Amino acid sequence: MRNLLYAIGPMIFDSLGVIVFAVLLGVGAGIVPATIAGTAVAVAVVGHELVRGRPVAALQWISLAMVIFSAAATMLTGDPRFVMAKPSVVYLIVGAAMLRRGWLNRYIPPEQVGLVGDVMDRFGYVWAAMMFFTAAANLVIAVAFTAWWPLFVGVFPLASKAALFAVHFTVVQWIGQARLRRRAGEPQPAAAE
């Protein structure tokens, strides 16, 4: 349970602005109120990190940029097709950022990086693939099924992330435990005399 809380807390915190934006859209709050609320939350998250003197994580900056870009696009164009297609660009950017090895290591205790760091790297690529898939799905829904877009953007991105997180967390825990059991069963090298 401790590892789950260690992983899920920062992940939710890092994406809080986008989560607020998506949830509000999903419940029908409208694009303008959703972008204003998402922007306020994303600014608060980044501000919180800066005030505490901690480095701001890449996903926190991306979350802030995403909601600010949404707000600007909404206010400047008023064109719903632009606003609906915009998440595809953001998901592509996020997916590209997730192709960097080691980006997931901040979501596990430092002492576990040696144990499951390679698994975290592989899941980093799985997360990137999901972002690329979400970008494509968003574009298809925005263009071909416009009436369904608010429901899609309010449900699918969060649901797919929650599902992948559950799989990711379970697999990493299982592999970590298996590796620890295997290490415990290995004979220890004799101490030098």
UniProtKB/TrEMBL annotation:
Keywords: Cell membrane, Membrane, Transmembrane, Transmembrane helix. The keyword DNA-binding does not apply. The chain crosses the membrane at residues 20-46, 58-76, 88-104, 125-149, 155-175. It holds the Pfam family IspA. GO terms for cellular component: plasma membrane. The keyword Transmembrane helix applies. InterPro entries: YciB. It comes from the Bacteria. PANTHER family: INNER MEMBRANE-SPANNING PROTEIN YCIB (PTHR36917:SF1), INTRACELLULAR SEPTATION PROTEIN A-RELATED (PTHR36917). This is Intracellular septation protein. It comes from Sphingopyxis lindanitolerans.
